[in-house]
Queue: 2 jobs
Job 1
Amino acid sequence: MTKFALAIHGGCGVMAKLDLTEQEWQEARRDLGRALEAGYAILAAGGKAIDAVQAAVVVMEDSPHFNAGHGAALNENGIHELDASIMDGRSLRAGAVAGVRHVKNPIELARLVMDKSPHVFLIGSGAEEFALAQGLTLVPNEYFRTPERERQLERAKQSERAGGAKTSATGTVGAVALDRDGNLAAATSTGGMTNKRHGRVGDSPIIGAGTYARNGVCAVSATGHGEAFIRAVAAYHVCLSVEQRGLTLEQAVREVLHERIGALGARGGIIAIDARGNAVLEFTAEGMFRGCRDSRGRNEVALFRDP
Ligand code: ASP
């Protein structure tokens, strides 16, 4: 049987354990299951990895429980600025957007940048003009707001006033997939860090930092403190270690998270799939929303270390 596989994350964070009610966890779990289902159905029908990761991310963008699309984090001015990227490991084509305020599903815009423009990365109003020209659904900025994100912004501002951390991260979404034809793809979408400075861009839309895919090697999507993932060129580093140093996917992911990201004083999570369909879902934060489904029968959703 030809192998195919999909892994997803809904972000990681230290706040997850403190914040989540049983009902919220159940709803998040249900939405992770729906995201897996959406992507897996495409792979099972012989569809492409790039379409599967996009479909899975759209479901999580539409859920209020993750920090992407509806339910995205608020910046210091109480505005949502969204980032996303997608990469096709078959061609090394990629698309990314940053600082968009009105695009309902930023991952769809990243995909259009990849498919319908000669560019890789569009930002702000230029990205939104392109979205308009491409006929994407635009929404008022308030569409992304939820009471929980307002509470998180208030808490982050209190922490800042008390001399603690200014920003907090939790809930970015991502997906990686291997299709029946051996193609790998990765996608990541986020509202970034709560209370981030206006104009701040994290790792999620940066190819090589938050997202990377290369056929024959692996596909990677990251979550966590974006500044550290940018400085560590985290997603690309995982691929490079598998391709050129002969590390297993698990070794490569663990090295980046525990050594490179850890050495920068940061924490986070990485999901990755290699060319044989092995999936690794690893994190150094307290928990990471995650799920994995493959053609060999693996089908799981989890938050903390013990599912
Ligand atoms: N990596 C994201 C960022 O820094 C945040 C997250 O993963 O929650 O924008």
Job 2
Amino acid sequence: MLQTVIETLDLKKSYHTEAGEFEVLHGVGFTLCQGEFVAIMGPSGSGKSTFMNILGCLDSPTGGVYRLLGEPVEKLSPDELAARRNRYLGFVFQGFNLLPRADLLENVALPLLYAKMPSARRNKKAMEMIERVGLGPWAKRQPNQLSGGQQQRAAIARALVASPSLVLADEPTGNLDTQNSDEIMRLFIELNRQGLTLVVVTHEPDVAECALRLTRFRDGLIVEDSLLAEKGLKPRLRN
Ligand code: ADP
Ligand code: MG
């Protein structure tokens, strides 16, 4: 049976603002199994990033339950959350977030440095991952010497290098043109076929249609959660 990677039950998140308590997530129930590829859509301000930050152990919920690989995380300390983050999760952001004065190899190897892996093994694993995303010849380049699409592929290599259980990508193609965006989505499709579990937030239908499941947020709640195949949609960029 497939392992449940993520489970949220009645998940809530409020912020304290000058105007008082402001609830952004009103009780979100979401289950994600190993090998799934989910696109999260929804209007700006509907709580997608807030939800992703909680899934990513970057932020804590104010109500409900979040289980990551079966373990409830809402009672973990910040250090314990950081440990789960490093061990189980990989992140891809809209702005690539690569270190500007480090080359690709150093950037991709960074999570392994945090994991205290010795340098020779670190560089070998990072180089393997750089080759897997098609950037072998550019390993010694700095990010500003690469195109946006190449930088995002490097960020994906960095997200994958420590063999996470789940990759979370928030608007990963938001800064890319159509050709580079399709290239990134082809890479995600290939990685998912090889077994990677993926959650991608996007406001672009073309990007969402590369996933296998679509989860739609509105006003801090999930209002739709379905498989693309059930909707009669043929997934994009798959042959
Ligand atoms: P999305 O990613 O769907 O555009 P967000 O999760 O970023 O939405 O934001 C959802 C709502 O939460 C917005 O109304 C936003 O203004 C509010 N919000 C996000 N972060 C904070 C914060 N740190 N303090 C107060 N309000 C916040
Ligand atoms: Mg957002």
